[in-house]
């Protein structure tokens, strides 16, 4: 048999003090990565030691949203992650040449994730956020195997059709025996100049996912917050400065701060 020892993942060891959150969504484009980077920045602002693993093979937008252009470096046998705003970042996109799309097969993804968790010099993290690809794919299963104590954070829009898909992404926790820490509803409304709210994507999705997962898992899965649509949130992401830092007074930033408090 093989005598190669399995790489040690510090976050998965008994007694690890790092809270690990796997940020999941049913569909793409609901704001999962935006929520991930803003929570990371909000937690780092509080003085916590924070890392982000961008495991979204389709999107890998985390480095851009945090303004990270540096590549990881290698020191001895460890990978040193680049940092921004006090957040250490590793992305699957940092290991693919240019913008070339790479077809990652399940086992390759698993090995890549394992390396991100075991061979990156994270130091003593208080919080590790993992931005998962949308849906209930190989990566979610790999995370559950590699870091069984990772808690799932589900991001959805208010749209009920989207909420049903998001619920499936959360319900995977029954099979993997993970905790679901809560639900975030994003793009909840657009505030109009007269102060009224336009519900662009309908309403009730976050509450629906929270209720359904609470029933399925037999444990309270709270709706941690609702984030309004805000052009500045997108602009801040495009500019590599999360809105919680760039526009901390905005309603969207305040909602994200409240969600960070609930973690
Ligand atoms: P996902 O990770 O779910 O694919 P992203 O975080 O990449 O989603 O968001 C998709 C797009 O929507 C991005 O351009 C992002 O800037 C934008 N976006 C996300 N949330 C909001 C929001 N609350 N208001 C305005 N734009 C948003």
TrEMBL record:
This is Iron-sulfur cluster carrier protein. Binds and transfers iron-sulfur (Fe-S) clusters to target apoproteins. Can hydrolyze ATP. One of its GO terms (biological process) is iron-sulfur cluster assembly. Keywords: ATP-binding, Hydrolase, Iron, Iron-sulfur, Metal-binding, Nucleotide-binding. It comes from Blastococcus mobilis. Belongs to the Mrp/NBP35 ATP-binding proteins family. In the N-terminal section; belongs to the MIP18 family. Homodimer. One of its GO terms (molecular function) is ATP hydrolysis activity. The lineage of its organism: Bacteria, Bacillati, Actinomycetota, Actinomycetes, Geodermatophilales. The keyword Nucleotide-binding applies. The keyword Nucleotide-binding applies. The chain holds residues 102 to 364 of 383 of the full protein. ATP binds at residues 26-33.
